[in-house]
């Protein structure tokens, strides 16, 4: 997803293996990004291969999302009957994306989506889709039913005057044109009478609590003004060190929960969702709902009433304003590149979008930096020297400073020492070029070269204002910039996540999980160094990231963030391996140091216990009871085999729960519990999961007291593994609150 599709990677790696050794050495030992890019781009002799792969990826994607009008109408009706309103809305949205404007097809799709939005309680969005259906020529014979829906939305929203006018118009329509069948007319008249009574007594609704809470979080400002890092609070300061690089420290004592950073993504790219394998679709039309159907492709706001791009069938937005902003900033270039960008992956997409957004900033100093890199080579061809001279002329500023690089005190800061979330800060993030394998650098360079070739052929790329037009090789400079961004992203990309609720609305207790929604660049958050036991937590509202203190932080302490490998989720050896392979450093945080000197029993949430005395087992291949008075021993392989069998049984119980068979699920889970007591620690993660499953099963039966008892036991295991202030603990506490509320416990 982040990197190119497997077919393109296989082609590039095969091409690399067939290159003469001398060329491999030249690219492998290249000292600058410009050398890597220019040498690799010369090897893209033919554009045919990437075109063929792009065509296959595009056809596969189109087959996944393209839905003809008849299919849409038929399956929207099926979804409506089965109360699958989100699926109905997404189907209708796909129909809208592929229908011509001002036709019956698109108007019917808007009307179908308005029905889904109505049943989902999104009445404002429903009204907008009703208006769009009418604007595109919704058939007059179908108007009464849709107008009744409009009136009901207005009544629900407390807009009684508009509702009364709509009801009056409906009554006039019935009197003037009695074209409906008698039975249908009677149903509509009954609903109309009910609605009239409702309109007379309906009071204006107050804002719902979740909406109010979200708005409050969005409007929350940073504490104090930070003149050095505008996206951070006054409680932190930027420092630099030869070993640690740039980092943030506390300027005073910080309390848990304090907001430290609030930053908009410089750019973000929505993940397209899971793609089905090429040529192996389950059916003619794949109607699975993905991120692209539910979130705005610019601001990442959740919406079912998406507004599609007029030029392509992929990009969708939450409003016309968002669509126009995206078009002005980058989508006017990206619109025709959908298939290629899907082929090259999210990192290439972010790299392109970053350079496109840079066109609207003062990028002259960045251009000088790029040109300086091209010039400062041991061997510089006359053509490249000409390119450098062309790009460094007329870049603005005073004449005596032309062509000079004025280095700020800290990389990424301006001349006043201010570190802002702009392209200058993005450009100075480290690409770690020498740490990437030669094959990976070649893959990234050839991918960017293919993108540049397409941009040049389409004539749709307009470089930054600082680059003089008419320079034949100007795209090479931005190609080098894009290559730098692709390499930067392995260490500096931030996964933008959201909380996804699972289960239907009928469930009394809902589960939630954190899912990856998009990838973005946040220059200020990139300043935070890693710890396997961080003192902050990061969360997202759309494409805005917030960093809060998760514990008390003393004055002078470093502000630390977890890059993914957390001590509550994996052992030190696994964390070290992941950090070394992706981020190119060996972690020496307090958590790793403490684990090195701890007993070799492993994490408590993975521990086995003695079947005789219940003490924890210790050892490697052969486990020995930790109690000095017990001589019990057992092979680790035997216990792992038992654990796998138990996990299968728990999986079967969860399947019974999904199939609405809670009684049978409880019987199976209680048996699993008895088995677990003979060899698993009471704090083992699977023990906690079984308690959580039992809580769900008893909640389904309405036995709130037993459900709460099991959930409280699950909380104890979650706290041991993830900590008392973790997101996971918050999810479990929220479920417990739902139980107490529903059962009035």
UniProtKB/TrEMBL annotation:
* Source species: Lynx pardinus (Iberian lynx)
Classification lineage = Eukaryota, Metazoa, Chordata, Craniata, Vertebrata
Domain SET: residue ranges: 234-564
| Catalytic activity reported | L-lysyl-[protein] + S-adenosyl-L-methionine = N(6)-methyl-L-lysyl-[protein] + S-adenosyl-L-homocysteine + H(+)
Q: What does this protein do?
A: Protein-lysine N-methyltransferase. Monomethylates PRMT5, modulating its transcriptional activity. May also act as a histone methyltransferase. Plays a critical role in cardiac development. Acts as a key epigenetic regulator of gene expression during cardiac development via its dual activities as a methyltransferase and negative regulator of HDAC1.
Looking at the record's lineage, which domain of life comes first? Eukaryota
Could you tell me one molecular function GO term of this UniProt entry?
histone deacetylase binding
Instruction: Say where the protein is mainly found.
Output: cytoplasm
| CDD domains, per the entry | SET_SMYD4 (cd10536)
Q: Which controlled-vocabulary keywords does the entry list?
A: Cytoplasm, Metal-binding, Methyltransferase, Nucleus, S-adenosyl-L-methionine, Transferase, Zinc, Zinc-finger
Q: Name one GO biological process term.
A: methylation
Every copy of the MYND-type domain together lies at: 296-335
What's the protein name? Protein-lysine N-methyltransferase SMYD4
A GO cellular component annotation in the UniProt record: nucleus
Q: Does the keyword Nuclease apply?
A: no
Annotated localization = Cytoplasm; Nucleus
